[in-house]
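Minutes, project huddle
Topic: does the predicted pose make sense with pyridoxal-5'-phosphate bound?
PN asked that the exact inputs be recorded in the minutes so nobody has to dig through chat later. Recorded below.
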Amino acid sequence: MSFGKGKIWMNGSLVDWDDAKIHIGAHVIHYGSGVFEGARCYETARGTACFRLDAHLERLFDSCKIYRMEPRLTYEEIHRGVLDTIRANEYKACYIRPLVYRGYHTLGVNPLPCPVDTAILLWEWGAYLGQDALTNGVDVCVSSWSRAAPNTFPTLAKTSANYANSILIKMEAVSEGYVEGIALDTGGYLSEGSGQNLFLVRNDVIYTPPVTASILPGITRDSIITIANDLGFKVREEMLPRELLYIADEAFFVGTAVEVTPIKSVDKITIGNGRRGPITEAIQQAFFDIVTARVDDRHGWLEYVYEGQPREAVTAVARTARA
Ligand SMILES: Cc1ncc(COP(=O)(O)O)c(C=O)c1O
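Predicted holo structure (tokens), as shared on screen:
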């Protein structure tokens, strides 16, 4: 099953994909008054597991709070909804898209009279920028579009409206022949890609823009900082000038969709030797080892989806996978 097939969860009920419809008068369609998440579940050596689902749902509820949206369903109900929907669709691995949005009532700008509806949509989504990108990296540009200025569109909220900016960044990059665009903040400091966070490596130190640089605080970004610290690297979150990109030894994107994707050039300037660098590779390897349960889940990031995994068999499979 994949995009276009299966069951979708809407306000607590599973409906067929083709019946998951909302009215053209729904507030969200006109004003972008929705907040959403993008998470993944992976097929691991021990069964199907969601990666950091709790962290994603906490960010969903943070986004709701910023936009004064009170979901009619509780955190626990939405959490259970994600697991139930994966089970109903019998996915082994998939992308998970919970969406909370202002529905159909009136079309004044004021969203408050409109209902707060929730949907959970799943589909199979492999490597976002292609399998080759994970190994060989991508060519990117610095966008002519900036990320939103502070106190305009809150970037700590993952809201549909923010993706108007992402769409502009992505379209510009693609039409200029690049795979992705990196946006600066309105102060001219490095911010992030259209749908992913940014890391640089220089002289064995790992750098990433801070949350004050108009970024979405990525769950993968947080995981990568933890993994890099676990591996003994020095990680610095600080405002970074654009030109640090060009003289970096390595650069890479991280995010639920792109996972850990090396960057091989920016604005046609080769980064390092134009290939996945050794620190990027070490971090990427550690990330995939964790999400596929090839190593112990020491941070408690995996949540298994299906009941009744035969314990003995599971251990045997995991042992074989590690060997
Ligand atoms: C603008 C933007 N930045 C960063 C990210 C990475 O966030 P996460 O790692 O939580 O997927 C995303 C992905 O959703 C994004 O859309």
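Observations noted during the meeting:
- Residues 294 and 322 are 6 Å apart (CA to CA).
- Residues 309-323 have pLDDT under 50 and may be disordered.
No decisions taken; revisit at the next huddle.
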